[in-house]
Specification:
Blueprint lengths: L7 H6 L2 H11 L10 H25 L6 H18 L7 H16 L7 H9 L5 H29 L5 H14 L3 H24 L2 H11 L2 H4 L14 H7 L8 E2 L2 E2 L11 H10 L1 H25 L5 E2 L5 E2 L3 H26 L2 H9 L22 H23 L3 H6 L1 H18 L4 H15 L4 H31 L3 H27 L21 H15 L6 H23 L8 H9 L2 H20 L6 H6 L3 H26 L1
Antiparallel strand pairs: 1-2, 3-4
């Protein structure tokens, strides 16, 4: 069934009352089941699980992955199968949309757990309690919900803004329930097969799962005398080094540095292959270029020059050089410079985002008076936002002061930036499905840092609060779009978003402590366990780098690091200008090059392999309707989602098992 929509002329000339009345009479589905007990519970559980995989991937790559279409396909397949067995009636299209809306909202709230809040811990050495993190994240996400629904009336009801990503989700839902159900079942099977195969592989390469199977289930430690469980090594070159260590001169080096210290390993990481497929060949190539320049060329030179050297630990022992040491001592600075300058130049090249955003509420078009609020009985009452936003903003400022030591007045000063950033991010999301929160957050960071340089939390937490609220509101509006297209109740969506925020917090905060803050033998947790070869936390390192520049300046850095930062800034400007002038035909991205610097090279290589695989298969299977096209082009997202979710869930399970069996 074709989705109904207004013509361009109607959008331009009709009042909001006319548009709302048309929607109420032609699109609104009335009492069709939407936020039911089963859709709410399914969305909560699915959102919690998928947000956990999002945090896992974010900790590895710094990239937030969307879960909207994945949750749509999973929910559709689940309830279609249940209905087919006669155990329950099938989902309505609005129940499915409600489930994906809750799951998507859950995915949005986890980003501080691999970015700003982690940076705060790394800079200060302070680990907030689990309940403090839960309260702070939930309050910040609630402000985003409260801001989103008044803006929904402007951007969605009146302007009929496209929100491309949200619209795509609505189109997929409509096709699943009105004639293309077989396509949905095929994609669900594809996701399930790939996810299941990936899970089996991930279990075989995980020490915890193999310990559970071999020692607890099969008791091989008793009857076979095993001391350690056998498992396949994810690092494929492990077997080469096992042999090469016995033969003199067979360990490869670059300028005298063991390539393993540089992180130059070959790893079959299924999750990173999936991430690479989603990011595309251009971004993956840029990441690979950044990793090559840093770890193959610059880092060995700086080690030889002495600008990167082993450090002395608190107990007097030497901290051996590793990839993370190389990044923290030297590479971080030029990598962060590439990312920040590249993002700011890219943002500055889109003045329409600013101009359109600030014009959005500057008067109404001729004949566009709102008139009677014909949707008053189903919209979220505006008074809830008018009261809730100020109350929750002050509450958020207070808990930021109470939990993180940020002066209360500084947190309050940052509040006006929330509305500015939200307006800009929402307009950007409406036009491009892209939110410039990364670059906008750095502006807030520098602004707050100029007010108080002595306290790292004073620039980190207000910037985190403003950027997360703006991002949450903008993303939620994109999430509201399919519900509007399909005729759903706005109030049910608002409640669903709060349920989703709660799901993300409840699932991911305990998991954060389990994965990244495991206590030592004395029961003490340390921030030193957060960043590792497995979890590089590149987004957090970017926030940390900016915070340290604000607090300490550049005086303590080696001259070579300062030179590299200057050259990186110039290169970032040149690269982004070339991208803009060529209208995207120039494939390199300064932000992606910088990301390749702070990511483990083995992860970058796996992402490039994934991107290259799907790019080549897309070239090979161009013809729509063929089996190859259906699998490799139409099925790209389900395959990548299967790779990511299968690997991430088994990786999370492996960490839990290791804790339980310790």
């Amino acid at each position: 069934m074709a989705l109904l929509h207004l013509t361009d002329e109607q959008v331009q000339t009709w009042s909001r009352e006319q548009k709302d009345r048309w929607w109420l009479e032609n699109v609104y589905q009335g009492d069709m089941a939407q936020l039911t007990l089963r859709s709410g519970l399914t969305g909560f559980l699915l959102g919690g699980i998928l947000s956990a995989t999002g945090m896992y991937i974010g900790a590895k790559t710094g990239i937030g992955i969307g879960v909207g279409l994945t949750s749509v396909i999973l929910a559709f397949a689940l309830f279609r199968a249940i209905a087919g067995s006669g155990m329950a009636r099938d989902y309505t299209i609005l129940e499915n949309n409600c489930t994906q809306s809750i799951a998507t909202a859950a995915g949005y709230v986890v980003s501080p757990l691999y970015s700003s809040l982690v940076a705060y811990m790394l800079v200060t050495g302070v680990i907030p309690t689990w309940w403090q993190l839960m309260v702070w994240i939930f309050i910040v996400s609630a402000i985003g919900v409260l801001l989103a629904f008044p803006m929904k009336r402007k951007f969605i009801n009146e302007d009929q803004a496209p929100f491309p990503e949200g619209r795509a989700c609505g189109v997929v839902l409509d096709s699943l329930y009105h004639g293309e159900g077989a396509d949905g079942v095929f994609k669900a099977k594809l996701l399930g097969i790939v996810g299941g195969a990936t899970a089996i592989y991930q279990a075989i390469v995980s020490d915890g799962w193999m310990k559970l199977v071999q020692f607890k289930l099969l008791a091989m430690d008793k009857w076979a005398g095993l001391k350690e469980p056998w498992h396949l090594h994810e690092r494929l070159d492990h077997y080469y080094y096992q042999w090469a260590s016995k033969v003199e001169g067979m360990i490869p080096t670059i300028l005298g540095t063991d390539v393993r210290q540089l992180g130059l390993r070959v790893t079959l990481d299924a999750a990173m292959i999936g991430v690479g497929g989603l990011m595309g060949i251009a971004v993956a190539t840029s990441c690979l270029l950044g990793a090559f320049i840093n770890f193959v060329v610059l880092a060995p030179m700086m080690i030889q020059a002495g600008d990167i050297a082993p450090r002395v630990a608190a107990d007097g022992s030497l901290i051996a050089l590793s990839r993370s040491e190389i990044v923290n001592q030297w590479s971080l600075w030029w990598g962060v410079t590439m990312m920040v300058v590249g993002a700011l130049v890219s943002l500055a090249a889109k003045p329409e985002i600013f101009t359109a955003a600030f014009k959005a509420f500057a008067g109404k078009k001729k004949g566009a008076a709102a008139g009677t609020d014909v949707l008053k009985h189903i919209e979220v009452p505006l008074w809830i936002s008018y009261i809730g936003v100020p109350v929750f903003s002050v509450l958020g400022s207070y808990v930021t002061h109470l939990f993180f030591g940020v002066p209360f007045w500084i947190a309050l000063v940052s509040l006006p930036l929330i509305f500015v950033l939200t307006l800009i991010c929402t307009n950007s999301m409406a036009l491009t499905s892209w939110t410039p929160t990364g670059s906008m957050a750095k502006i807030t960071q520098f602004t707050m840092g100029a007010i108080d340089r002595s306290n790292p939390g004073s620039n980190l937490l207000p910037a985190a609060m403003t950027s997360e609220i703006a991002s949450n509101a903008a993303n939620l509006l994109s999430d509201i779009k399919p519900g509007y297209m399909l005729g759903g109740k706005p109030r049910h969506q608002a409640i669903g978003h709060v349920i989703g925020n709660l799901a993300g917090v409840v699932f991911c905060v305990p998991l954060f402590f389990l994965l990244f803050l495991q206590p030592d033998a004395n029961g003490v947790r340390s921030v030193g366990t957060i960043v590792s070869d497995q979890f590089a936390m590149p987004a957090a390192l970017q926030w940390k780098g900016v915070a340290e520049i604000i607090a300490k300046g550049l005086k303590g850095l080696p001259t070579s690091a300062l030179i590299s930062m200057g050259l990186a800034a110039v290169a970032a400007v040149v690269i982004e200008v070339l991208r803009i002038k060529s209208k995207g035909k120039f494939g390199l991205s300064a932000v992606a090059i910088g990301l390749g610097v702070v990511l483990p090279p083995e992860s970058v290589l796996a992402m490039f392999v994934g991107a290259l695989l799907f790019w080549l298969m897309g070239k090979k299977h161009k013809t729509p309707g063929t089996k190859g096209h259906n699998i490799w082009v139409e099925g790209l997202e389900p395959i990548c989602a299967g790779l990511i979710s299968g690997a991430a869930l088994m990786g999370i399970g492996n960490a839990i098992i290791n804790v339980m069996l310790a």
